[in-house]
Amino acid sequence: MSFKPVVLLYDLNNEMVDECARLIGQTGLYTAINTYNETNAIEALHQYDRGFGFLTNRLSCIVTGWNNYKRPRDQFLYRLRQEERRSPMRTPTPVIIITEDHRLDLKQRALDPTDGFVAAYLDTESFQEEIADTLHKIVFGKRAQEMNSVAFARLQRELEEDE
Q: Candidates 3.40.50.720, 3.40.50.2300, 3.40.50.10320, 3.40.50.300; correct CATH number of 6-162?
């Protein structure tokens, strides 16, 4: 019996979480865990911990967004990264952000390889076309780090062009 890779979905927009879960479920390749608040997302995250949190967790990817009611440093992404940095035996869990908030400071912080290390930054208007392919590249292609590097370099070029 083979187990499907597990994808954790968390966003305050319940409709977006449900739609994302539906799209991921249609592939038949993943198990999606829907969470609608940060407390449940963190609880699900801990359920997939290995070695009492000292080893990389068993989640294949996390799909999340920004919480507009919180400061950037208090976001779920940074709580996750803070926990991962506590152990040298943990590697960053791949993260996809789906958002309508395109503030450059948030995007830069999320894509920064030393900070947010997000593999993909998708728009709420168009994620439907990209989510399955992006997830496949991250989970089965093991390309999260490569995708982060490309997205961060692209953003840096955009910022240089704007100056």
A: 3.40.50.2300
Closest CA to 77 of 53, 61, 88: 61
Residues 6+ apart with CB under 8 A from 139: 5, 7, 29, 30, 60, 61, 94
CA dist., res. 138 & res. 24, Å (int) = 13
Model pTM score: 0.92
142, pLDDT greater than 90: yes
| 64 membership: H or E segment, kind and range | strand 59-64
- How many helices (H) and strands (E) the chain has is answered by 6, 5
